[in-house]
Please model this.
Amino acid sequence: MELRKFAEQVLLSEDLEQKITRLKESLTDNAPGDAIRVAQPARPASLQFAARRTAPAMPKGASLGDPARRALAHHVMANHELQALEVMAMVLLAFPTAPQDFRMGLAAIMQDEQRHTRMHVQRCQELGMQFGDRPVNGWIWQKAMEYQSELEYVAGLPLVFEGANLDHSVEFEQYFVAAGDRRSAAIMRAIHRDEIHHVQFGLTWLRHWKTPEQSDWDAWTQALHWPIRPSKARGDVFQREARLAAGLNQDFIERLENFAE
Model:
């Protein structure tokens, strides 16, 4: 399958299964085509982005002892993963002249995002809730609409949203363990391992596109659009070792951990 067709299938299909079903064929990038952008991804009616502040907040902590609250957590996270997948498809279509290694690497990560979405959707269903039963927000997609270059993309999604998930995935694994939900905990453990590689991908390409005299930190922070800022790239339980495994240097990690709002 051509990479462009794959991206169009993810971004422009209203069928959730078509968006997230595992590919059965290899990808090529021989015809990237012209640059296109859309205002919103195509989605089924039940998963259209809700009005601001109308989607339910992410449940946390002891409340996740309730299976219904765990189902809601997976519902929220499925939407996060789906948005990340759609943003990546948007990037492939918006920047067709990006290096082929970047485009093919991004396509491989998209297949991880498809799998993450499927895992959350399935677990949500097992806990008694269908994906789409509750309103969903479009925050990740809305911020991605501001990306005007490949550099801004890698600074934004891999190094902020996926960077924060290095922490959030561990936090929720701990919540689910405390609730006695080993299946949900295993999902978060698997996602955490993938996020290390996704952050590493973003860092690799940040270094590719930044100017030689810039530090990683300066290149990253200068490419962010307010209100996205370094504090958005961490959670409550800071995972230093995961960030080292992703290739971030000590200076970057210390600045991130100590960044004040």
